[in-house]
Structure formats: C-alpha cells, structure tokens
Amino acid sequence: MGFFKNVISSQLIDVIEWKDDTQNTMVHRYDMNGKEIMMGAQLTVRESQLAVFVNEGQLADVYQPGRYELSTQNMPIMTALKSWKFGFNSPFKSDVYFVNTKQFLDRKWGTSNPVMMRDAEFGMIRIRAFGIYAFRVTGAETFLKEVFGTNSMFTVEDVEGQIKRTLVSGLSDAIAESKSPRWILRPTMRSSASTRSRRSARRSRRWGSR
C-alpha cells in the first residue's frame, strides 16, 4: 500500500517555486514535466516575482510575493474555470508562469545612423544620440497576452530591440517637430562654434588695424 502511495505521489507536484539565477530572464514557465499539481501544493513567490496560473490558454489566478497552500479558497478564477466545488481535493493540470518584476538596469541604446537636419546657423548637421535606460514589467497579465505568448522563457534580449527602436523613433520625431535642433546639440558643440566666431572677429580687427 505504501509502495503505491509513493508511486502516485511521485507523479504529482507538491512544491512550485522559481529560483532565478540569471540576470536577464523576464518570464519563466515552470516545467511540469507531464505531472499534475497536487491540491494543497506549496507555491512560493519570491520578492520581485509574480506567479500566473494559465488554464488551457486562459489566464487564471495571479499571486503576489508570498507562500501559498493551493486550495479552492485562494484559487477563485481557476475554481470557476474548472467548475470545482468547494473543498475540491483532486490533482489538476495548469501552466504556471513566473514573471520577473525587478528593474532591468543599465541598458544601453543609441542611434545606429545619424539623424540629418538643417539648422539656420550650422547648416546641414548630423545628430547622434546615446544613453542608458531601465525598464520592468508592471502589468504581468497584459505582458503575457500581448508580448510573451506561450514560450517557455522570455529574456531581456527578446524585447530590447523593440525598446531601442521606440527610443530612436521618438528622438527622430522630436527632432522633426522642432524648428531648430539647438536644444539637442551638446554644449561643447556650441562652445566650439562660439570660440571660432571670437577668433574670426579678433583676426578681422587685427587685419583692419594693419
């Protein structure tokens, strides 16, 4: 009897958690390995994480950081989707996604090609821009629906290209809408132009005195 009980228990999941040892994973799907989740299983959601249960493609319950003993009482959406009665105690199947909500810092961006624009003082100029940015997931459900999909993992690199293109596009639009790009020129460029103007003026005065 104990042998069969151990066999059945080995086919069920009684602990669900994700220990993130990477620096770039945004979403991780828990590997069920073909097993069912035991009712009463322990779910651990760490700080800077959210856990999202998905039932047959439908988003179900979302869990904030903390430790939970799964039951019909704290799985209201899953209970409704599966039409469980109060006190339901049988194993069940579900996909579980862990969403990383931490800040992804020090991400670099820049213009691969210069943005061309004509200025009244400098003529045709080439504008380049670069910098750093940070981002994080604030709406896990929306992110899963519209960006992540059903992949087993989603990393920073999967979304970084889109973010960089959005930044560069915003810069280009801002320059195009501006009558003069002087607000975006570096102070060193302005000071260099002013220095050249003062030098030219001094030369003119010296030549005039001769």
Task: Report on this structure.
The protein is α+β, with helices and mostly antiparallel strands. It folds into 2 domains: 89 residues; 83 residues, no CATH class. The chain has 5 helices and 12 strands. The N and C termini lie far apart (115 Å).
**Unreliable spans:** 1-8, 185-210
Cα distance, first to last residue?
115 Å
How many structurally independent domains?
2
Strand proportion, as a percent range, falls in 25-35%
Strand line-up of the largest beta sheet:
5-4-7-2-12
Helix residue percentage: 25-40%
The count of strands amounts to 12
Silhouette:
elongated
Give the rounded overall mean pLDDT: 82
Number of helices: 5
Order of helices and strands: HEEEEEEHEEEEEHEHH
What structural class do you assign from the helix and strand content? alpha+beta
Sheet of most strands? 5 strands, antiparallel
Q: What's the gyration radius in Å?
A: 29 Å
Question: What layout of secondary structure does this protein have?
Answer:
Elements: H1 2-10, E1 12-16, E2 25-29, E3 36-45, E4 49-55, E5 58-63, E6 66-69, H2 76-81, E7 95-100, E8 104-110, E9 115-119, E10 123-127, E11 130-135, H3 140-148, E12 153-155, H4 156-177, H5 187-209
Parallel strand pairs: 1-3
Antiparallel strand pairs: 2-7, 2-12, 3-6, 4-5, 4-7, 8-11, 9-10
